[in-house]
Protein 1
Amino acid sequence: MTIVLVGMNHRTAPVEVRERLAFADAELPEALRQLVDGTTITEGLILSTCNRVEVLAVTPLSERAALERIRAFLSQRHQMPPGEYAASLYHYVDREAVRHLFRVTAGLDSMVLGEPQIFGQVKEAYAQAAAAGTVGKTLHLLLPRAFSIAKRVRTETAVGTMAVSVSSVAVELARKIFEDLRERTVLLIGAGKMAELAVRHLLASGVRHLLICNRTRERAEQLAAHFGAEVLSFEALTSAIARADILICSVGGTEYVVRREHVAAAMLARRHRPLFLIDISVPRTVEPSVGQLANVFLYDIDDLEQIVRAHLEHRRSEAARAEVIVDQAVETFMKALRSLEIGPVIAAFRRRLEEIAYGELERHRRYLGALTPEQERALHHLLDGIINKLAHPAIARLHQAAREGLRHPEDVSFLELWRDVLEARDPSRPASRHSRSSP
Amino acid sequence: MDRADLLLLGTTIGYALALLHLIVSLWLGRMRFGRWPFALPLIGGLGAHTIWLVRAAMRFGHVPIISTQEVFALLAWAILVYYLFVQRKRRWTDVLGLFVLPIVLLFVLVALVSTGFKLLPQELEDLLRMPALPLHIGFMMLAYAGFLLAFLAALMYLLQERELKRKRFGFIYRYFPSLSTCETIGHRSLLFGFLMLTFGIGTGIILLRRSDPVFWRGDPIIVLALITWLFYLIVVHYRLAAGWRGRRAALLLIVGFLATAAVFTSARLFGHIL
C-alpha cells in the first residue's frame, strides 16, 4: 500500500488555475468514484477549497502508476491538458503525504497561518468520500489521526490564537477594554472602505448601536440604511463622542477632525468611561495628543499593523512548535500503518509453518504407534520449538523492515515478495507467477 | 508533629500545588491538563484549612483570632473564600489567582511557622465569651478580603491600562481579563468590603459598650477603623455619585488599601488585637 497526494495550493498555483481544477460539492461523489478504480487506486479523497485542490489516494501498485492515474483523472475531469497545470502541482508519497495532510488539517499550510476553517473542510471532504464509499482501511486510519493531531496543535500551541488582520485586531483591542461588546456604541466618522470593514467586524462581534457622522450626509444615510445605524451631523461631534465607546475615524484630508478639546469635553460628559479611538485614515485625522488623556486609548493604522505583525510573528514561532508535534505524529502513524500491513503477513507465515509441521506429523503418525499423553505433548513442544527457532530470524527481519520502511523506491514490493514466498511453498494453491513450475 | 500542624501543612501543600499548576498552565499558554489538577488541591487545601480553624475554635471555645497563627490562618481563609466567590462564574484558572493565591499561601505559611498561644491572656477571657465577637471578627475578615481583592483588581487594571497606552503587548495583554472586568471586580469588591466594614464596625461598637469601657477608650485601633471607614465611604461615594472610573479610581483604591494595611499591621505589632 502506498499513500500518494497530488495537489496545488495558493502558493503553487494562481487562482485562474485553482478555480479551473476545483471540484464543486455536487460533482464530488461522481468524481470520487471515477478516481477510485479499484486497481490503480483503491481509496481516495478529494479536498477542494478556494485555496487548494488536493487528491489523496491509496494504491497497491507503484507510486508512479498512481501519480499518472491521478493526473489523467484531473485532466479528463476538467478537460485541461496536463501541460496547463502540471507546473503548479506538487506530489507527496507515503511519509511526506501523511505529513502534508497533517499540516494542512492543522492549518499550518494555510494562507493565514493557523486558521481553523480548513479543519472543517477536511472533515467535510472525509465525510463526502466516506459517503461515496471511496474510503478504506488506510484512510479510515489516517484521517481521524489528522483530526486529533490538529486538535492537539490547537490546544498545545497558540498557533490559532491572536488576531492577524487590522480589523480583527481592532475588535480584539475593543474586547480587551470593554469585554462584552454587545451593549457598546460605535461611532463611525467618515465612510471609507476600511472603516466599513472595521464596522462589519465589530457588528459581527455583537455591537448593536452604530452612529455615523459624515461630511456628506447622503453617503452617511446610505451606510446607515445598510447597517441600521443612526446618522448624526458633523457639528454634534462632541456629543456623539460622549455617547460612543468605540470611535472609528476614516476621513480624507490633512487637518485633524477629532481634536483634543472635543474628546476632553466628551470625556467629562461621559464621566470618564473608557473610550477607544481607532484612526485608520492616512494622514491621521485624530489629534495624536488625544491619546494622552486619561481613560482614552488611541490607535492609528500603524499601531494596528504593528500589532498584526507581532501576532503573525508569534503565530510563526508557535508554528515551529506545532511542526514538532506533527513530526512525531507522522512517525507514530507510519509505524501504525506498517504494523497494519505487516501483521497479517507474519500471521500467515506462522500459520503456514505450523500447517507444514503438523501435516508432516500426521503423515508419519502411523509409524509412531500409540503415544502416551506425555509423549504427545513432548512432540508438540518439539515441533513448536523448531518452528519458533526457524521463524524467529525471518519474523525479526520483517519487523525490522516494517520499522525502517518496507521498500525502496525501485523495489517491486517487499511485501509481495513475502506473499510469493509463502504461496510458492503451498502445495494446495496454484503456483504463483514466480514459481518454476509455471509455463 | 501533632495533628493540627499536619492539617495546616496539608493546607499549605494544597494551595502551593494549585498555585504551581496555575503558573505552569499560564506559562505553557493553555490549560493543558484541565482544571481538576488546579481545583482538587485547592478544594482539598480549603477543607483541611476549615477543619484546622474549627479545631482551633473548639480547643479554646472561642473564635480563632488570638495568636498570630490564628489571625493569619483566618485571614487567609477569608481571602480564599471570597476569591472563590468572585470566581464562581468566571474561569477557575485565570490570572487573578496569580495575585491572590501567593498572598493566601504566604499567610498560611506564616501561620504554619508561628506558634499558637498555649495559655489565654486572662483579660481577654470575658471579651472572647461574648456572642457578638464571632460576628464582628467575621465581618472584619471579609471586609479585609474584599478590600484586598479590590486592591488587586485595581493593580491589574493599572498594569493593563499602561500596556494598552504604550501599545507594547506581552503577557498582560494575552492573559489579563479586560479593563472592564478588572473594573467590575474592583467595584463589587469595594462595595462588598465597605458593607462588611460597616457591619464590622457596628458590631464592634456593640462589643465596646458591653465590655470594659475604660479598657477600650481612646484605643487607636478604633480611631483607625473609623478613619478607614470614612476613607472608603468617600471612595464609594465618588464612584457611585460622581462616576469616578478607570485610572484615578484604581490609584485611589491602591493607595487606600496600602495605607490602611500598613496602619493596621503596625497597630497590631504594637500589641492590639484587630
Protein 2
Amino acid sequence: MLKFLPQTSRRDFLKVLGLGAAGLVVGCTGSPPASPGTPVSSATPSPAAQLEELNHFVKIGADDRVTVVVKHSEFGQGSSTGLTAIVAEELDADWSQMAWEFAPADNKKYANTLMGIQGTGGSSAIANSWQELRLSGAGARALLVAAAAAEWKVPVSEIEVSKGTISHKSGKSSGFGALAAAAARQKLPEKVLLKDPSKFTLIGQPLPRLDGAVKTNGQAQFAIDQSLPGMRIAVMLRPPKFGAKLKKLDDAAAKAVSGVFEIVTVARGVAVIAKDFWTAQKAKRLLQAEWDFTKAEKRGSAELFRDYKKQLKTPGPVARNDGKAEATLAGAAHPVELEYEFPYLAHAPMEPLGCLVDFKNGEVDLYYGAQLQTVDQASAAATLGISQEKVRINSVFGGGSFGRRATPDSDYVVEACSIAKAAKEKTPIKLIWDRTDDLHGGRYRPMSVHRVRGAVGADGKPTAFFHRMVVQSFLADSPFAMMIKDGVDATSVEGSANSDYQIPNFRVEVHMARVGIPTLWWRSVGHTYNAFVMETFVDALAHAARQDPVKFRLAMLPKRSRRRGVLELAVEKAGKPPQGGGRGVAVHESFGSFVAQVVDLEMKGGKPSLLKVVCAVDCGIVINPDQVKSQMESGINYALSAALGEAITLKDGEVEQSNFDAYKVLRLPAAPPIEVFIVESNAAPTGTGEPGVPPLAPALANALFAATGKRITRLPFTLG
Amino acid sequence: MSKFTITVNGQPREVEADDDKPLLWVLREDFGLTGTKFGCGASLCGACTVHLDGQAVRSCSVPVSALNGKPVVTIEGLAQDGQHPLQKAWAELSVPQCGYCQSGQIMSAAALLAKTPQPSDEQINQAMSGNICRCGSYPRIRAAIHKAAGSS
C-alpha cells in the first residue's frame, strides 16, 4: 500500500517541518563538514562556506555541499546514509555533494514522529523520517527553483534540476550553492511535489555508506575520543550487588596516587577523577569500600529461575484471549507442552559507555553517542539543577548500542553529570567505563521462563495455543510506565500476543517479575524470546501433526500476511535441503518488517555444523538494498552470538562475567555464510536494525531438531 | 615515571609515563592517536590492535616500557591518506557499521596480508579470531580481505 502522497499541501509541509506560520527559519551555521558523512563535530572544518539553512534538515553551502541534519543516532545501522539519500533524491542533488551532520538536541525540531520525543529506537529512523525528509528535500528543491526562476526571470515550470544542477532551456544553469542564499529568502510554493517513486534514482541504489572512510582510517569520533582543554578522566567504582549502598570508604591510598585530582561519592558509587585513564584505574583498584547490602538483590540465577518457575504455575495478567484455550487443551487428545528458559543478556557494545561533560556557568555541554536526546536532556538538567534548555547535546558516533544507550533513566549520562556536579574543580570531565563496568552495569535483556501448551485437531490445523511467561518489565518504575496496561507491558509479550497465526483459541499471560536487577530493551526487545518460543513451538506442533513445517506455517497465516512472502522467498532461495544434516525455518514480524530465515546444518565428524543462513526480508520500499542486507547480516550474527554463547548469570546477586573471556560472543570463524533476499514492495519503508534478529535462534534450533531430534528450550545452547 | 622515545608511524615521539602504562593509552591520551580503540583492556577483543615491529599486537596489554625501541604503526599510519588496499576494500564494501572495532580489524588483517598475500579462509579465521565485532560485520570483513588480497 502506498502510504505517501504524490503531492502534499503547503500546510502539511510546514506542519511536518514544525515551522508553523512563521515561515522558513533562515540562518547560518558554522563550517560544513570536510567530507561526506563526516559529522561537523568530528571533522576538520573546510574553509568556511556559509550554509543557508533551507529548513531544519537541509543546509546548502556556497561550495554546493548539501548537509542533511540527521536527528537520529548513528551506531552502526547506517541510517545516516539512508536519511541523506532520501533528501538527495527529492532535492535532485548529486550524491557526491551530499554530507550529513548530527542534529542538536531539540525536541521541537527533531522529535521522532513515532515516539514524540527526540530519540532513536524501535528500528524507526527511516520509517519516521521518510515523509519528513522527502518533504524537506522537495521543499528545499522548490525554493532553489523559485530562486532560479526569479533570478533568470523565467517561469518556475521551465526550470529543471538534475544531479545538483539547476538549468533552463535558454542555457542558463547553476549549482545549488550560488542560489542558496536567494533560495532561503523565497516563499515556499503552495504545493510541494514529491517524486513519483518510479523516477527514483538514488532510493533503491546500493550506495556505499557515507561514514565508510572515516570508519576505516581512524578519524571517526566516538565519546571516548572526545577531548577538551583541561579535561580530566573519571572512572567509577560501583557496588558489587544491584541496590547496595556505600557504607564506608577508605580512599587514602587511592588519593595518594600521583595524578589523582579528586575522589567523589555520588549516588551510583565512587568516582576517581584523574589526569588520565590509566591513573584513574590504578587508583580505583586502591579504593576500600564497604557496602550496605540491606536493600540489594541477593538472589542468583538459580534462585531467580526457581522463583520464576513457581510463579509460572499461577495464572497471570492476560495479554490476549481468543476463544477458550484452556478448555480446548483440556479436551485435546495429544497436547504439546514445552517450557523455556532464557538468560539475562548484555548488549556489550564494542565501545564501553562514556560521556564527556563540560559543566560551567550553569550550562552544560555533553559529548557522547546519544540515543534518547530528550530524556537525557531532562535527566542531565535534573541532576545538575539547571533547566533543560541549558543542556546541549553534542552527538558523536556511538560504538554500538543495540538498545543500551537508550535508558529511561539516562544511567551513564546521569552518572557522568553527577560526577561533574560533585567535582570541586569545574573542568571538563570524561567518564570512561571499562568492559567490567559494562558487563556488571545491569540493563540486561530480561531473563524469562515460559510454559507453552498447544494442540492440533484431527484436520491437522492447530486448535489452541496457550503461552504464559514470567519476565521483568523494564518499563515498570520508568518514565514510560504509563505504557503498561492492565498489568501487561506490551514490549514483554510482543511477538506472541500480537502474532497473526490463525489459531482459534489463543491465550497469552504474563507475570511481571519483581527483581532488583535493572533490565532494558535489547535489540528486538520482547521478540528476542517470544519469536523463539513461537517459532520453535509451531515447529513442534507441525512435527506432532506430521506436517512439513513450512506448509504448516503457511496454512496458519492469513492470505494477506506479509510473512507469507518472506517465508516463500527464503525457502525458494535456500534450494535443496542439506543431505544428512538438518534445515530449520522461522518467520517473524517485528517493528513493521517481516523476516524469514532458513538455517542449514551439515554433519561434520558426527556433529552438526552451520552451513549457511538464507534470509528474506520485506521492509517496504528499500532506501538502500546494501544496507538492508548489512543489517540482516548484523542481526543474524548478533542473534547467533546470543543463541550459542551469551548469558549473564548471577551468584548471590553478583554478576559472574567480567570480560569477553566469560561473556562469550561470536567471533569471525563461527560466522556463517549469509544470503539475503529482499521482497519488492511499495509499502512505506520500515526498519531493519532489529527485525533480522528474532528468526535466527528459532530457525537454528529447528534445524538442530531436524538434524538430531533434540528440541532446544533453554538458551544459550550448543550445536554439538 | 620514566621518559620514553617511541617511533610511531615513522616519527620518533617522546612521552613521560609510568612504566606499566599500556601503549594503548600512550597512543590515545599522550599522542592523540585515537583511532586505536579501547574495548576490553585484556587482549580479548582486538579493538586496540597495532603493529609492533610489523607484528599485530594488542596495545592494551603492552606496557610502554616493553617496547624496546621497536617501531609502532597505528591505523593512522597504515597508509598515506587511508588508502591501504584493505581500507579501500573496507569502504567499498561498506564493512563498518558502528565502526568502533574496525581499526583493530584492519590492523590484524594488514599484518596477515603482509605475511600471507593470498590468505585462505582458514588463514583468515586464524588471523581474525581475536577481533570481536558486535555488529557482526564478519562476512564483509572476510570478503574485504579477499578483495584486498586480489588487488594487492
